[in-house]
Amino acid sequence: MEKSKNIQHLYWRAGFGLNAEEWNVKQGLSVARCVNLLFAEAKEASQVAANTPWEAGHRKRAKKLSKAKKQKIRARQQELLKTENFNWIAKMAAPDSSALLEKMTLFWHGHFACVFKYGSTAINQLNTIRTHALGNFKDLVLAIAKDPAMIKFLNNQQNKKRSPNENFARELLELFTIGRGNYQEKDIKEAARAFTGWHIDQDGKYYFREKHHDFGEKQFMGQTGNFDGEAIIDIVLQQKATAQFICSKIYRYFVNDIPDEKRIKTLANAFYESNYDIEKLMRTIFTSKWFYFKSNRGTKIKSPIELLVGIMRSLKVEFKEPRTVLFIQKALGQILLKPPNVAGWAGGKNWIDNSTLMLRLNMVTYLMMATEVDFKVKEEFEASMRNKRMDKIKATIDLAPIVDTFAKLPEDQVFAALGKYLLPIEVTALKNQILPFTEVGTTPKSRIQLLTMWLMSLPEYQLC
Questions:
Q1: What is the distance between the alpha carbons of residues 184 and 191, in angstroms, rounded to a whole number?
Q2: Count of H helices and E strands in the chain?
Q3: Do the beta carbons of residue 424 and residue 463 sit within 8 Å?
Q4: Which of 243, 289, 296, 370 lies deepest, with the highest CB count within 10 Å?
Q5: Whole-prediction pTM value?
């Protein structure tokens, strides 16, 4: 019992849960074996084909285009952005994708929050993140600093010797690396000077524009030198506070919203000594005994993406229209490729409010019963979607793997077995309240389908 709950916990935190077929296999393996499989699959994962990035409309090339051509490019890129959103959701849900790599990509996407206007730049940045998501943190930070989408989003294209723009330097220190309280305002100004000239060429790729770079001496975090952007990153990583900041954020995301400062300090010291080896850090977390303590299980509210992808995996959901997936994200309050601001999503209890709770609890019922749905997107979303309703969630589900897995059990064991598979918390006490609603079915198949629906509609299913 304990081992299977540990396996369930691992795959929800390091991925998006397991479908019934995977559950049949994985619950018989050791935790160590499952951890090794997760990292092996991540190493074998493939990238997504990138599109021509210059279509993002670099201003020099755009000057030569007609207004109609510009509008056509923008429309095409906006459609590509929606398609990439849908494709990424599908990739997370696909059993042949690396769940760990996509979960790490989702984490870093929120950490290096960037709002995209063009689909091609979104694909390119996600590929950049996937490349370094389990690699070296310095390589990841440097790659993000040179990423065209990030350069545009944080205005480093306007960062020039004669008129430094501090946006990227500020977020690099405050949100991406060392955190507030560990630097001075002067450090931001000096870092901005170091990143001058980090621009995008007319093909939408990073290039160093030498004539706009400030080659003068800079004083940054107690050191003096002719620093460029990479040197600034090196100096920031020399500070143990950076390892502490990153490990604290990773702990809250993958372990518990309530930080354990002693454990985080131990992780940070090891992360620093490993020269910021992300894979080593994550292996340490997933193989630690404390990661599987009851105090860390079922303590986190699933993000809308985790909830949606988890349902898709468990029920083998295939949505018929990409717009449905986008609409659900908007209604639940988390849209991939469109974080609310540069700080990303707040997470935790912020995921739940009056406008999202009922949809969360009824999502599986809507899918399984194909009933009419009456919900609308949250007020803060764009005017084109505000107050619009979706009449029906159009999707197909395949419950055969769940039925095949649990129908062979004695009837008095089905409730406990299904609960162990679907929920992080024991709900045996609810058995007598739920079972009467499943007696409508006259066959084991229909009873298991109804029981699955009821269990996945419980508040406990919102947790992982």
A1: 11
A2: 22, 8
A3: yes
A4: 243
A5: 0.94
